[in-house]
Amino acid sequence: MKQKFIILFDLDGTLVDTAPDLMRAHNHVMKNFGYPTKSTEEIRSLVGQGASAMLGRSIWGQAKKEFGKVQDEKIKKEMVKEFIDYYGKNIVNESTLINGVKEFLVWSKKQDILMAVCTNKQEHLAVDLLKKIGIYKFFEYVAGHNTFDYCKPDPRHLTSVIEILDGNVNKSLMIGDSETDANAARDAGIPIILLEDGYTEKNITEIYHNHLIKDFVGIEKIVTKYL
User: For residue 142, how many other CB atoms are within 10 A of its CB?
Assistant: First the structure.
């Protein structure tokens, strides 16, 4: 049987602009625990390594106190739990698909491409978001922050999904928006397409990539070269 081509997608900032809803959940927690709030644009640079990392980077940036060094583990766990609970109940209030995503997913299905999501979001939140925003049916597998014992930028987050789909890294491609995605793909030996306006602090041109795109409109021309 012919081996199918696989495309792995990041979620936040790649398939879905989730920053508005993440911002509201973040600010809900920060207000309750006495830390400064953030704008939607500021949140875009904090996303990508999970809820705990996002809250930590936020506090480190404004309160000059690293989340990892907060002595009270109970408070840290409470903050993360409250974030996940609030966000889970308000996951698609303002989140929207990135331009061209639905059309590209439909095209990829017609090409018999296998698709999966590799995100540092909690798995149940990722699945819920994909279902509520209407694109869950396109994916053969969803791997979240807690699916394996490792997550991006560890390349095994990607290679494990490829193995589960009986694929090969030489017939796989990653689409993401951050250094976390790029480093995972690079170390896995997979080409990566990066979105220009990603959820990252770095200038996108400084991040490893094979192709840069503004959105998913016209991306079929790039992907066809790999098929």
Answer: 22
